[in-house]
Amino acid sequence: MTTSITSKWALSLSERRFSTVTTSRSARRSPACGSLMRARAISGGLWLGGGYATDPLRTGEAVASVGSSASVLYYTNEVIRADNTSEIVEFDIMPVPTFAGGEKMVMQRGAGICTVKSTPEKEQAAIRFLKWLTDPERNSQFAVSTGYMPVVQEAYDSYLPQCIEKLTDQRYVELYRAYIETQRDYLFYKAPQTDSYLQLEDAFESNVRKHLSAARNSFIESGDESGAALDRLIADSYEQFKKGF
Fold first, then answer.
1. Which residues lie closer than 8 Å to 29 by C-beta, 6 or more apart?
2. Global confidence as pTM
3. Exposed (0-12), middle (13-18) or buried (19+): which is 192, by Cβ within 10 Å?
4. What is the DSSP string of 144-188?
5. Which of 93, 56, 98 has the alpha carbon at shortest distance from 170?
6. For 68, phi and psi rounded to 5 degrees?
C-alpha cells in the first residue's frame, strides 16, 4: 500500500479531486497478498519508495494504492516487464476505507488557477478563460477526462451524470463508480488553509519514509523476524520520528 501526497494548489477555483483506493486484479491473485495486507512497513508490507507506486501496483509487487482520484492518469492498463513481455492489467477502484465505527471522510483538494496583476487586457482575458473553463457542460467533460470533480453545482446536476454514462475506459468507469459512492456517503474536508501547511505535510511524509526505511533496513540486516524484535523496531522508529518532526 502506498500513500502519495500529490496536490499543490493556489485557489479553490480549480478542478477538484478526491482520494480513492486502487487495487490491481493481478495483485489480488498474488499468493503473498494475504500476508502483505497484514504486514507493517518495517516487515515489508508498505511501499516506502519515493513518488508514485504505480508500477509496483500494476506488477503485483504492491496490492493497493491510496491516492488522488487524478492518479488514474498514471495507471496505464498495460505493463511491460524486464523480459519485454507485456500484459493488460485491470483495476478495482474504491472509496477510501474507514476504521470500524469511524466516520467516512475524504480529503478534497486540487490544483488551483488564479490571476496576477497585469494589464487590463490580460486580466480580462484570464477572466474570460476561467469563465470558459468553468462552464458547467465543458467543466464536466474536462473533469471526467482527468479524474477530477466539477467545480459548479450545475455541472453535477445537469451534465456530470451523462458524461459518466459515456465513459468506456475501465479505469474511469471504476473511478466514477467510486466517486458516486463517495459523494453520497462521505464527508468532504479541506486541508488546513495555513501558510505553513505544505511545508508541514512534506516534512511529515519525508520523516515517515526516512525512519521507517531505516527500521526496515535494520529488520532485514538483523535476520531476527520474531515479534519481539519487530515490536522494538516499531517503538524505536516511532520515538525517532517524534524527535525529528
1. 60
2. 0.72
3. exposed
4. HHHT-B-SSHHIIIIIHHHHHHT--SHHHHHHHHHHHHHHHH-EE
5. 93
6. -65, 150
Our CA angle for 111, 68, 61, nearest 5°, is 140
Buried b (16+ CB within 10 A) or exposed e, 34-65: eebeeeebbbebbbbeeebbbbbbbbbebbbb
Cβ atoms within 10 A of the Cβ of 22, count? 27
- In order along its 245 residues, the chain shows pLDDT tens digits of 222 223 222 222 334 565 666 665 544 444 333 333 334 678 887 888 777 777 777 776 777 788 888 888 888 777 777 788 888 878 888 998 888 888 999 988 877 788 889 999 999 999 999 999 999 999 999 999 989 888 888 998 899 999 999 999 888 999 999 988 998 899 998 888 888 988 988 888 888 888 888 888 888 888 887 778 888 888 888 888 888 76
Q: Is 105 helix (H, G, I), strand (E, B) or coil?
A: strand
- Rounded distance between C-alpha atoms, residue 113 and residue 98, angstroms: 32
- Kindly provide the residue ranges of all beta strands, DSSP E only, lying in the chain, ordered along the sequence: 2-3, 17-24, 65-68, 78-80, 86-88, 91-95, 105-109, 187-189
The Cα angle at residue 43 between residues 42 and 44, in degrees rounded to 5: 90
226: helix, coil or strand?
coil
| DSSP for residue 16 | B
* Cα separations in angstroms, 218 against 50, 61, 78, 172, 230: 19, 21, 35, 41, 10
Q: Cβ contacts of residue 153 below 8 Å, gap of 6+? A: none
Here the cell at position 116 is 496576477
